[in-house]
Write a structure and sequence with these properties.
Elements lengths: L3 E12 L2 E12 L3 E5 L6 H8 L7 E6 L2 E2 L5 H10 L1 E4 L11 H11 L4 H14 L15 H13 L5 E5 L7 H18 L2 E6 L2 H4 L4 E6 L2 E2 L7
Parallel strand pairs: 3-8, 3-9, 6-7, 7-8
Antiparallel strand pairs: 1-2, 1-4, 4-5, 9-10
Length: 226
Amino acid sequence: MNDPVLQAEGLVRSYGKTQALRGLSVTIASGEIVAVSGPSGCGKSTLLHCLAGIIVPDSGAVRYRGQPLGEMSEKQRSRLRRTSFGVLFQFGQLVAELPAVDNVGLPLLLGGYQKRIADSKSLEWLQRLGVAEVASALPSEMSGGQAQRVALARAMVTEPEVLFADEPTGALDSLAGEQVLEVLTSHARQRNMTVVLVTHDAKVAAYADREVLLRDGAQLAAEVPA
């Protein structure tokens, strides 16, 4: 196995009286594609958000290349998500006022890229994911599947070291979902990009190198090949 890029140890996270994570630990190697699977409400998205530094666990630690995310400021973690991490949220979270090309290019513009370069890279990813035709469309003018692919393009445009994808094919039909997963996994393997893929779909999990099964905020069993 390659060197670990992410290590989570004893993660506990609660929302009020509901415990979403119960002492969960997982190690993810550089270049590995890991599917996090389990029923609705088992803690999959919470685990992803902890690993990506979006939320800080109540106890336990997440380390990125040995550095604890919990010791970083929110500004430092935000910068990490614009550079080394790419995040695809379950419901896309596109900026309503921006056309697709600007939504995709937003992380690049925030990182100091010139607009023409950001536009070029954005259009390339929209093309690769089969939604170049909506480049000038607002999110309200897109179908759910188009918006999801635009959001994935935004997560990929910075060429992140780690991609976090929460139900990346949830709004897509079977054929479109397969096409997106082929692009995602092929790119990951070519670039040694680590992928953390949250899914409840066994067909999606099958694209991963390994599957982590959760139930009630804990790992259900030994990690198994996907």
